[in-house]
Design a protein that fits this description.
Number of domains: 1
Order of helices and strands: EEHHEHEHEHEHEHEEHEEEEEEHEE
CATH topology: TIM Barrel
Shape: globular
Structural class: alpha/beta
Mean pLDDT: 87
CATH superfamily: Aldolase class I
Helix content: 10-25%
Number of helices: 9
CATH class: Alpha Beta
Length: 343
């Protein structure tokens, strides 16, 4: 097993501060592999005032002193439905032109909507869902959006129950969207679960043979990863996490120490500030409506047997800590609790 040969899994190059943010759980889709609480609109959208106050905290506390920039992944729900999206993104860009904003979206907004916001959005991950996305229209729209300066990554959701159609969509987009990144996404039975759909050996073989490797990126948003040892005498670069880590089952860092909450900060659709996107939903650092914030900025000892969310995957993981280094031992997965130094 590759991970047993190394003791560090980390990005290649310096990390920005990544903010994975779901400003609400309203969506105009209701995919069968998406849990209702992720799309049913049961939570109100985050206010612009709360959002901007928390963004200013991150900028002042994490970026200024270390000369880092912020990378935002806005998702949902469907983030393009957020009424405050333009206002919040305008503020992010006012702090620094180096700050990057990426939307994780189903891509249903019209072409002109995207063009009108090309000064706000640097990139978009467009999820292509079988039965709810027309591959020809998606292809045409995002070829135009890409030429207007927004980096587009088309992610085809590989639904096990409509597998052949998903493969056909993937191949079509790969052939017709030469300036866009095209990737496949292995699906879990539910978006907030840790169990991959039961792909057959034949289906896994097909996924591994799909054309890939075309990277048309103007701004480095997703850093490639590397397995390495502490003395750096041995390392193996990882450029395709789906094929090289997730499908082979190398995405298990149980009992390792993960820098979620340090390199990445998560704001859930309920407004809770958390360390991980998919994992450790039970840990709460605070809420964006708080008047003040105080995050612990300590690594978390992993208790899971799989890591699937891209923001979580692209975060440093270490088998060992430095002597005396503190960490969060999140060993109570079923009982929500708060970790903060704020009164």
């Amino acid at each position: 097993m590759i991970r047993d040969e190394y003791d560090i899994f980390e990005p290649i190059g310096p990390m920005p501060v990544v903010v994975d943010w779901g400003p609400g759980n309203t969506c105009n889709f209701s995919c069968n592999y998406c849990s209702p609480n992720v799309h049913d609109g049961s939570q109100p959208w985050h206010s612009a005032d709360d959002s901007i106050r928390f963004i200013n905290f991150l900028w002042d506390e994490l970026c200024k002193k270390d000369e880092k920039h912020l990378v935002f992944n806005f998702h949902g729900g469907e983030p393009t439905l957020w009424p405050e999206l333009d206002k919040v993104c305008t503020h992010i860009k006012s702090l620094s032109s180096k700050n990057i904003i990426r939307l994780i979206t189903n891509g249903t907004r019209g072409t002109q909507w995207w063009i009108d916001r090309k000064h706000l959005f640097d990139a978009a991950i467009v999820s292509i869902h079988h039965g709810q996305s027309n591959k020809e229209k998606i292809s045409e729209k995002f070829n135009i959006v890409q030429t207007n300066g927004i980096v587009i990554s088309l992610h085809v959701m590989m639904d096990i129950y409509n597998f052949d159609e998903c493969v056909d969509t993937y191949n079509y987009l790969y052939e017709h969207n030469l300036n866009c990144e095209v990737k496949f996404k292995p699906l879990r039975y539910k978006i907030d679960s840790f169990d991959l759909q039961s792909y057959s050996d034949e289906q896994r073989n097909i996924l591994n043979k799909l054309p890939s490797g075309r990277h048309v990126v103007k701004k480095m948003i997703n850093l490639p990863m590397k397995w390495c040892t502490k003395d750096r005498n041995k390392q193996l670069d990882i450029y395709n996490l789906e094929k090289q880590v997730v499908l082979p089952g190398e995405n298990n860092w149980k009992d390792w120490y993960c820098n979620i909450g340090i390199e990445t900060v998560v704001v859930g659709y309920q407004g809770n500030i958390r360390p991980g996107s998919l994992c450790f939903n039970n840990i709460k650092f605070g809420h964006i409506s708080d008047a003040e914030y105080s995050l612990p900025f300590k690594p978390v000892k992993c208790t899971y047997t799989g890591c699937y969310c891209m923001a979580d995957l692209q975060t440093t993981k270490r088998k060992y800590l430095e002597p005396g280094e503190e960490f969060i031992d999140a060993s109570i997965p079923d009982q929500p609790y708060k970790i903060t130094t704020r009164d």
